[in-house]
Model the fold of this input.
Amino acid sequence: MIIGQNGTVEKEAETPSDENKARGNWANPMEFLLATLGQVVGLGNVWRFPYMAYRNGGGAFLIPYTIMLALVGLPLFFLELAQGQYCSEGTITCWRVTPLIRGMSFGQMIMGTYGSISYNVVIMYSFYYFFASFTSVLPWVGCNHSWNTDLCADLVKECLNADGIISFNNTCVRLQNLTQDELSLYNITYDGLSTNATESMNGYDLTNYVDPFNDDRVTPSEEYWRRRVLQESDSMNDTGGLVWQLVVCLIVAWVVVYLCMIKGIESVGKVVYFTATFPYVILVILFVRGVTLPGALEGIKFFIIPRWHYLLNARVWLDAAVQIFYSLGVAGGGLVTMASYNKFHHNCYKDALIIAVLNSFTSIFAGFVIFSIIGFMAYETGKDVGEVISPGFGLAFVAYPEAVSHMPGGPFWSICFFFMLIILGLDSQFVGMEITITALADMFPNTLRQHKRYLTIGLCVALCVLGFPCVTRAGGYWMAVIDQYSVNFHKLVFALLECIGICWLYGVKRFINDIRSMIGDKIVDYKGFFFWPVTWGVGTPILMVAILIFNFVKWTEPQYHGPFPPWGQAIGWMMMFSSLVVIPMDWVYFISTTPGTFIERIRALARPLPSWGPALLHHRIESAQVHQKHGTTFGGKVHYFEADDTMDLHEVELVPNEETEQNGIILVEAPHAS
Done:
């Protein structure tokens, strides 16, 4: 770094020494792109988005989803990438920019803990199906298993193939054993002349015949899911024992997570080359198969044609907003964490646009896949598309298995599909774990940064134990509580706080110049770039407040097979508020530990800390010059050490040189060795 005349900075050529040696960096831009793509394109797209759309009226859900993407998801996605890359800090220490908002990061860690538990349970289910697929006949095909009931849907097909019908007492009766009066009772006629194979069986016309138990029929794949995999009890009050097969799969899932993360960001960067691309191959194969099944068109119509009355339901808008947060990963801390490993001049703006568009495309594409399958299931059971499956988190574990069971070589494609789900879950899980690990390592660099391996294994063991309620016979209810309560309106609160902290307290113009120092004038001065500060400062906050108010006015308690018991609802509410109560708690801690008068401490809450800014010194000076040129002040203080340009600026005792302090830029002499 060369200091020219009048204190200007003459930038040297970029070299490998520009990397943050203390924290590490992505080996190249593609690793970051794929890792972040792997985070946002995951179970939220293939598992959660379809059942959210199914629960909220199909096409009607796409309208608020698109609005939320444009006015909330994409703006916050870019904001978080820019913030993380600028300061090279994790989800907690990045809020040196505005300490008032720092408590939100602790809330994001708590929310990330719940998310890591539920995500690995979904990975556990995927491992279960993956192992079960190593067979010549898939176990969810047919109704001749011990877990099937008399209401298994394939029994009707088997009875009809045996020249019989299902009677009013739910037994298969051969047509030739029925009297004329009994045939009339079932709307069946016999003339012995009909040759239409689709309507006739040996002269019996079944055109008007309807299975008496049609509305209660359940597909074999759904019975396998509820009665074999979950072994689900009748209520949340009946916990039952542990399902040992799920316990084994849960442990396997956590061991795999640990092995993939054992070397931190370096190992994640290598793994994502495969994990971020393989799922698209499987989705394309399932799409081709799904749209060729009979009844697929009706399912697709349900997905794309709005049912307008759903838009009057506050829950639809809240679910759309939460789904955007869930799939894009905004307001969760993961994007800040991943971007913090970028080099300072990386073009995160381009990445934000590419990743957000690919994410939404994947969600819509997965929707076409799964709704074509649901249309086929409705065709097979004779039900309406909106009634063929019980809406819930298990939708993917009913619809997708049903699809692969009708493909030639079903077990092979089932293995590929559930391997894909495992990959998708691991991608998202890497980031969820990295949020907590990076935040803790940045908070305690002297003790934890050098022992990330032990921190990782300790966290994996703790979260595995916390996931044990989800492998009991009431596990489905626990998963529903976590999914519907822990990821709820507090994500909207976090998004609102981010906008307030960056745009209203720190200053949107100042933040734009932070971005300018990273990606240059050409992008920031482009006319269309004004969309970002407008949405950050006005559009997104207004929309978040409106949805929060709408939701509280129209609030209804979440359900799973009926209302949760009061104690289950209480646990859900505690999970929601546990991530919010830490915000005022952090205010109290900050005020009690910050020197100065009470008024000075309050003011300090809304001002950047001196350590805020880029991690490397030459980037701090460069950024300060950009601010000076464009009429804003550098948020922190620039600490310049001639002897060592790469030392950890946040841990060094500083000796200010008052004669060189100008416009917020403090050049500091390196402390002499004692």
The chain has 25 helices and nine strands.
